From TrEMBL:
Coiled coil: none annotated. It is an enzyme of class 2 (transferase). The keyword Ligase applies. It comes from Balaeniceps rex. Keywords: Cell projection, Ligase, Metal-binding, Repeat, Transferase, Ubl conjugation pathway, Zinc, Zinc-finger. Transmembrane segments: none annotated. This is RCR-type E3 ubiquitin transferase.
């Protein structure tokens, strides 16, 4: 049989391994897939699934169970990891190489241009502390988060050494940065691209300066403790 990853050599042509799902691939091909990891800025774990049957080789634990996980018949029944990765977005900081939380994944999907990015601008809160945010007494600066300057979303990108963007506003940064501050939407302002939202409730559930100013949300773990 041919290796279903490289499609160029028979399995007998090189050392091969069998996954728990019973499918067999070249060892080197599996290593290359793991080294290449995910595509685009957002962390995903599809690369760790069997290329044939898509059975995931990872084990997960610790996510608080919700109805989206415990209700039989729903998409993520008994799949807390799939639920978390579908609902939330995570990225790798260019400076410290640690993963950090980047808000809800819907902002990523609404942007529609996730593959066009500069990895040097993916900076976590601890490495982009431009507003001298207060250090969390419990977690330090490891989970420091910022608000997007142009809407009420968690920032993912840190550009020009001064400005935090969510994914959607970053994809349209030339237009967003050219809008005079007094013409920017006021809170609640949402993705995509600084859209004025109805109502008075901020999506981030915090009181913050007007749109167009930098603002540190503080420790993401403590701020979002009720979510997990």
């Amino acid at each position: 049989d041919m290796c279903m990853i490289c499609f160029t050599e028979a399995l007998s042509a090189a050392p091969a391994i069998q996954l728990d799902c019973s499918h067999v691939f070249h060892l080197q091909c599996c290593q290359r897939v793991l080294e290449n990891r995910w595509l685009g800025p957002r962390i995903t774990f599809g690369f760790m699934s069997c290329p044939i049957c898509k059975v995931n080789e990872l084990c997960y634990e610790g996510l608080h169970k919700s109805e989206a996980i415990t209700t039989p018949g729903v998409r993520f029944y008994n799949d807390p990891a799939g639920y978390a990765m579908n609902r939330y977005a995570y990225y790798v900081c260019y400076k410290c190489k640690k993963a950090y939380f980047g808000g809800e994944a819907r902002c990523d999907a609404e942007a529609g241009q996730g593959d066009d990015y500069d990895p040097r601008e993916l900076i976590c809160g601890a490495c982009s502390d431009v507003s001298r945010a207060q250090m969390c007494p419990k977690h330090g600066t490891d989970f420091l988060e910022y608000k997007c300057r142009y809407c009420c979303s968690v920032a993912v990108f840190f550009c020009f050494g001064t400005t935090h963007f969510c994914n959607a506003c970053h994809d349209d940064f030339q237009r967003m940065t050219s809008i005079p501050k007094e013409e920017l939407p006021h809170c609640p302002a949402g993705s995509p691209k600084g859209k004025q939202l109805e109502g008075t409730e901020c999506p981030l559930h915090v009181v913050h300066p007007p749109t167009g100013e930098e603002f540190a949300l503080g420790c993401g773990v403590c701020r979002n403790a009720h979510t997990f």
